[in-house]
Write a structure and sequence with these properties.
Helix content is 0%, strand content 43%. Strands 8, 9, 10, 11 and 12 form a five-stranded antiparallel beta sheet that branches. It has a four-stranded antiparallel beta sheet with strand order 2-1-22-21, with no helix packed on it. It has a four-stranded antiparallel beta sheet with strand order 3-38-35-34, with no helix packed on it. A hairpin with a 5-residue loop joins strand 1 and strand 2.
């Protein structure tokens, strides 16, 4: 029999803990397979190929307009199943006019199909905005920008944006969100298996009526369904992070919770599901296998910075819950996934991400290093479906691993089906930004010589591995002065 792991699983809709494989299936493997041809080794390239030729300029601001700081402070990018890229960004030039803009490009295109302004002349403040795709080139944009100067309070509003294949996008009238969604600024949005939008209202809004909860019209036939925020099932809650659960049988979200179920318990990591139709929270399931400690007098590890994920296989839900935890020595952060340490014991993990594919295999990538190791590395590891063993952490790009040359993750994103994309830097590549993607079970790496890694604004990838990365540039314009531009590159 193949060794099986204690993947945390629950029957869909029931919250019942069981061992992986509870949905049935067989454990079998081929015995004495026929010999494979010996592979012919090929030398690894000294530098990855450049993607500078794929550059597509989305916006360029003239010299002298960005001297008080970066003008492109917010960027959201999406690559759909056909490879089309849509970017929505904020421009905040010194002295204005400020605007929220959008553009889309065909797969590998360098000239926008459709581009235009979503909101103009909004207050000169850096405020968050939220974008969600609704399908068929349609997006909802929620923001707090208003046509006023430094107001004491700007209520959140919403617009529906329809990108096109030619000309300006269709931008619907702004809809002021009701008071029940105004607490804390732009509301957090969730989506289930359809494009339906959900958001949790505030208790302070007086929304104490039983379900069904009110729906909010966002215009152009789009509605936002509201529900209550989750009632905390823990006796002590240190942190909570909510994430989408699109594979659920009914609309739900995942709640990653760090705390104590009972006052006498150790601090542990839990996962629970909240039903979006009635606001109820299913009983939490304990994920960690030992007490979760993420801080002491001299060191802090974040325990809630990456969301929980789940996939449904054979009528059972398999959760993937990552966090950083203090090592036994108390001066390193270990990357834990479902209670298993992924990194080597001597290493310290900083930023990271994980993803799970539809078959249940999990991939993690992180920045890992320590003074004992002498340098930092961008490494990855994989755990196969039905296994309890993580592969030995390995370089994302082995040809770029040079002793004494540090590597750091700068941007990460997850795509459908287990794909990943990262922006990172390596000391031996100079100032070039490196872009790596994980698709079809393997990593590939390219570089952008015309962009600095720390100027990456956003990165997006689809389930087929088609992706694009956005950079802020400060090139010389017209041969004389420094300007600022936002550009996309395809990988």
């Amino acid at each position: 029999m193949i060794a099986r792991t204690l993947l945390v699983s629950a029957a869909v809709g029931a919250g019942v803990l069981c061992i992986a494989g509870c949905g049935g299936g067989s454990d079998s493997q081929s015995l004495n397979p026929p010999p494979m041809p010996a592979p012919v080794p090929t030398p690894a390239p000294t530098n990855p190929p450049s993607i500078d030729s794929t550059k597509a300029v989305l916006s360029r601001l003239p010299p002298g307009t960005c001297y008080q700081g970066p003008c492109f402070n917010g960027t959201s990018a999406f690559v759909d199943a056909a490879g089309e890229l849509t970017v929505i960004w904020a421009e905040l030039p010194t002295g204005g006019p400020n605007r929220l803009a959008a553009a889309n490009l065909a797969n590998r295109g360098t000239t926008p199909l459709s581009s235009g302004v979503i909101e103009s002349d909004f207050a000169a403040r850096v405020e968050p905005f939220t974008v969600r795709p609704l399908g068929n080139r349609r997006f909802v944009v929620m923001h707090q920008y208003g046509a006023s100067v430094f107001p004491a309070f700007e209520p959140a509003r919403s617009r529906i944006v329809d990108m096109k294949t030619l000309g300006s996008p269709d931008v619907a009238d702004a809809v002021l969100l009701p008071p029940m969604l105004q607490s804390g600024g732009v509301p957090q949005l969730h989506q289930g298996s359809t494009a339906q939008l959900y958001s949790r209202a505030s208790f302070t809004s007086g929304l104490l009526t039983p379900p069904p909860f009110p729906s909010v019209s966002l215009g152009v036939g789009v509605t936002l369904q509201t529900t209550l925020p989750p009632l905390n099932p823990l006796a002590q809650l240190e942190s909570l992070r909510a994430s989408d659960f699109p594979e659920s049988a009914d609309p739900r979200i995942l709640l990653k919770m760090h705390g104590r179920l009972l006052a006498s318990d150790d601090l542990s990591m839990y996962v629970a599901e909240q039903r979006l139709l009635d606001g109820s929270v299913l009983p939490p399931i304990k994920i960690s296998t030992q007490p979760v400690s993420n801080s002491n007098a001299s060191y802090v590890c974040s325990a809630a910075d990456v969301e929980a994920q789940a996939t449904v296989r054979a009528a059972a839900t398999e959760y993937v819950v990552p966090w950083l935890q203090l090592s036994g020595a108390g001066f390193n952060c270990d990357l834990m996934v479902n209670g298993q340490r992924v990194n080597s014991g001597a290493a310290n993990v900083t930023n990271y991400t994980v993803n799970i594919d539809t078959n249940g295999a999990v991939v993690a990538v992180c920045t890992e290093g320590s003074s004992a190791l002498g340098s930092w590395r961008v490494l990855w590891s994989r755990r196969e479906a039905g296994s309890s063993a993580w592969s030995t952490p390995a370089p994302v790009a082995p040809q770029l691993t040079v002793a004494g040359s540090d590597q750091y993750l700068m941007r990460v994103t997850r795509g459908p089906g287990g794909t990943l994309a990262i922006v990172w830097m390596a000391g031996n590549v100079g100032t070039a930004a490196l872009v790596s993607k994980y698709a079809q079970g393997a990593w590939s790496t390219v570089q952008v010589q015309g962009a600095a890694p720390y100027d990456a604004r956003s990165i997006a990838i689809n389930g087929s591995g088609q992706g694009a990365v956005l950079f802020r540039h400060v090139p010389v314009c017209n041969g004389t002065a420094i300007c600022e531009e936002l550009a996309a590159y395809w990988f």
